[in-house]
Structure formats: C-alpha cells, structure tokens
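SAMPLE LOG
Freezer: B-3
Tube label: C17
Construct: single chain, 236 aa
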Amino acid sequence: MVSLQTPGKKQEKHFCSGAIISEQFVLVAAHCLTKPVEKNLRLLSIVAGTNQIYNNTYTQRFQVKNFKRHKRFGQQCSDDIAILHVEPKFPKDKARFTTINYKSNRRTLAGMGALLLDWEQDTIGVPTHIAATSFQMVENNDCGYDNKFSNAKQFCALRTDGLRSICKYSDSGGILIDADSKTLLGFISYCDKNTCEMEKPTAFTRISFYGNWIKDQMESMLNVQSKNNKKFPIGK
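STRUCTURE (predicted):
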C-alpha cells in the first residue's frame, strides 16, 4: 500500500491511499485527484516501502509522470477509479513493495469477510500507520444510498470490529482486500458522515468491474512512454 502526498508547511502531507498493481502503476480512488494536483503533477508524490507513514528510514518517494481518471467519474458518485504511472519503477522487493492482484472474478457476496487497509489517523487527524479493519459484505439493498448507488460498479460492506469510526479515523481511498486470497476488491468511495456512528455501510468501488479499463489505461500510458523515449533517446 502507498501514501499519496502533497507539499505541506513542514513536511509532505498525506491525503489518500493507493494500491501497487505493477512495478509502474498505482490504483487509486478518482476522488483523490483534486484539481490542483491534476493541473500540476509535480505537487503529487507517492510514498511506499513502509507501514509507518513518516518513518524516513524505510520510506521511498516516487513521482507521478502520468495518470488516467475514469472519464465518467463524478456522475452519481460512480466510476471512482484512477491509475497513476510512477517513476522510477518500484523495487523488486515483495516484502516492502507488495503488488496486489486486482484481476478477480470472485463475486462479493453478502456475509463474505474482507479487510480494510488504510493509513489510520490519530485523534487529531494525523495519519500514522497502516491499520487493518475487519469488514463484512452486505446486500446491496441494505446499503441505503438510494439513487447514487450502482450495483454493478459498487458494493457495500460494514465493519465488524466496532472499534473505530471509518469516516472519522480512516483516510480517503482505503483499500479493501479479500481476507483469503488478498485480492483487491475495492476502494472506499464514500460513506455517510452524518450517520457514521450508526453503523451505516460504507460504499466501495467494485474493482472487478474495471479489469479491462485498467489494462487499457496501462497499455495507453506505456505506449506514450515508448513514443517519448523514441523521440528523445537517452544520450542523444
């Protein structure tokens, strides 16, 4: 898992989570890409290689050279997905730079267990470390989000430990994984902050719906990189 960061007054500031899906690509929730970041990618960096967000001993910082956000994002809160092309490539260190599988046809059935991985915040809102929270899938009819919910593109899950408020102490774009296969299931897309303490389910982007889209965007950005390398060959 990675931390998306932008410049702060004293140090870089974390604002979203992301998942490494290959040595060059990170999958994130589209709502993480705000307009200032979108207009100037130099404001955005990726921190990976540690489970302590501000542990400078083990962290490595990567730059974002390109990104693709789903073109239909913003319409009724669906299609909340984007992909970042980073440089340099992530090191081949499976312990610190774990690539998570996003290619799964497994259905998210009610009662199925899952784990939310995110950068947990302390009581004053500062993210500190990666936390794992138990979740359980619920029936789509029980989500309670009415017209803005898409059964095909989203699913709902409810935390089962009851220890912390996901809306208050989780960061945006936290990733939900299959507790058994460790496959990426979804990103936190939205929750109802007004009723967060009342155990209302959280809505997640359904990653399995976007398998072809993810593949197409990676190929597109790699093609752009290849053309640029031919246009400006190293050493010429």
